[in-house]
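User: Sequence recovery, please. Input:
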């Protein structure tokens, strides 16, 4: 448990589909999570970026704290990547590293 909340493993945060966006001209992905527990939970959202050969070439994080039953959107900045199409694996963990979401995948075109 965290702050009195009983975590529900990887169903603590339920993800929406990730979508590509731009923030100040910089490519990014956005993903919204719904908190399924009875108090606020802080999550560190990771986006792990893979090139066409499947190699990990980048990662980025965003921290969100949705209230009980609420949603929060993570904006994952994809700065400095060369042009191309990338496969991105996205997941959330607690600040101490416990998995609290299922893994999502997305495609990013830079």
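Assistant: Recovered sequence (110 residues):
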């Amino acid at each position: 448990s965290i702050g009195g909340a009983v975590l529900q493993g990887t169903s603590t945060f339920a993800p929406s589909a990730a979508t590509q966006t731009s923030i100040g001209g910089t490519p990014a992905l956005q993903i919204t999570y719904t908190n399924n527990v009875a108090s606020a939970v802080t999550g560190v959202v990771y986006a792990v970026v893979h090139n066409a050969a499947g190699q990990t070439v980048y990662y980025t994080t965003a921290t969100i704290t949705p209230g009980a039953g609420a949603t929060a959107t993570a904006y994952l900045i994809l700065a400095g990547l060369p042009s191309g199409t990338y496969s991105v694996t996205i997941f959330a963990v607690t600040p101490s590293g416990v998995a609290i979401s299922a893994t999502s995948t997305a495609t990013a075109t830079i």
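Strands lie at 13-15, 19-23, 26-35, 43-50, 56-64, 71-77, 85-93, 104-109.
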